[in-house]
Amino acid sequence: MLSVFISNRLRASKHQAGLIGFLSKSSTLGVMLGVAVLIVALSVINGFEQQLKTRLLSVVPHVAYQAPYEPISSWPDKVSLLEAQPGIVAAAPEISVTAMVQFRGELKAAQVKGVDFLSHHKVSDVGQFINEAELASLSDDDIVLGRHIAAELGLERGDKLTLLVANPQADSPLAAPKRLNFVLAGVIDMGGPIDRSLALVSVKRLQLAMGLAEDQVTGLRAKVEDVFAAHQIAMTAGRALPDLVYVNSWFRTQGSLYQDIQMVRTIVYLVVFLIIAVASFNIVSSMVMEVKEKQADIAILKTMGAKDSTIFATFAIQGVSYALIGALVGLFIGILLALNISDLFRAWVELEGDNPLQGVYFIEFLPSQLHWVDVAAVLSITLVIAVLSCLYPAWQAVKVDPARVLGG
């Protein structure tokens, strides 16, 4: 208690000391900004990772088997075969083609997927992002388009449109494409690049357009239990298929996103903790100057019987208190910003009229997810750095010789 009392008196007296007061305040401010920035940055990174798992990986195939030459026959049997493999949750047929969407003379390219509307929900959560339509209730004449495709063509729900698909049975590559008529049943609104490219139609319509039998498709997709083991599961399960297929997984197509997120997390940890360390070690310089300035006071305390441990604790508490104040204020600001950064970003985009994430990343908004484990880790590491920073000046205070100081 005596050390705390003396530390408070020193702090109160130092408010009048120009340079020392400035250094202590700047170090506290540096710790505060570093902690706040780290909390916000980690929350945004956590948000991107969450969106990758819950949004992107819920729609893109975990595992895909694509026939390079001949179509996959008897797809219901192959689906059952895949679902019996370890790690596979569900499987479904799929036909993927690149086509042009035509409406009132305007054309827009799209990645068209022919799916089984009744079973597609087992392997994809895209239905959760479809407005004004239920995937399982769609008919063979219905089509679902990405929000940006529909907006750029001026399409509204119920409009009739034409899908231009290359004719695989034509002798010449310059042959006229097949024209398939559909009715827009809904739009996909995921808030990312998928809104600009994806179109969903009935697998039966594409089977007819491509001259395939009712039990033939060009690909199969599967949902796995552990998304981070998708590639191993894909290779193992693929060996059970009798067809010649290309094996693919989300880690090949989207894995770089996950690796980027983890790399950015590591860089943020390193850089911001270095900033906190620099700010904390500013405490060292202010504390060393204070020890030199207060040598006479320290000497008097020693002559009055103050123990070395009391002197050491006094200056250690003094330094840690600066870092603790900065850390607590930084935590408050960081948590407040992390909880509202998505709304602040949305308001800024509406004000500026330009979204810097549009067409760049897999989502077009700034997500945030606050993990209290991160908050505890940031606070703990900051305090550890602060304590280490205070050891040297506190030890210097203990080494003050009363006879030399007072005798001189």
From TrEMBL:
Any idea where the MacB-like periplasmic core domain is? 28-227
Assigned protein family:
Belongs to the ABC-4 integral membrane protein family. LolC/E subfamily.
Q: Which InterPro entries match?
A: ABC3_permease_C, Lipoprotein-release_system, LolCE_TM, MacB_PCD
ABC3 transporter permease C-terminal domain segment(s)? 270-402
Look up the domain of life of the source.
Bacteria
Membrane topology type, per the record? Multi-pass membrane protein
Keywords carried by this UniProt record: Cell membrane, Lipoprotein, Membrane, Transmembrane, Transmembrane helix, Transport
- Chain ranges passing through the membrane: 29-48, 267-289, 310-339, 375-395
Name this polypeptide is given = Lipoprotein-releasing ABC transporter permease subunit
Where it sits in the cell: the answer is: Cell membrane
Q: Is Ribosomal protein found in the keyword set? A: no
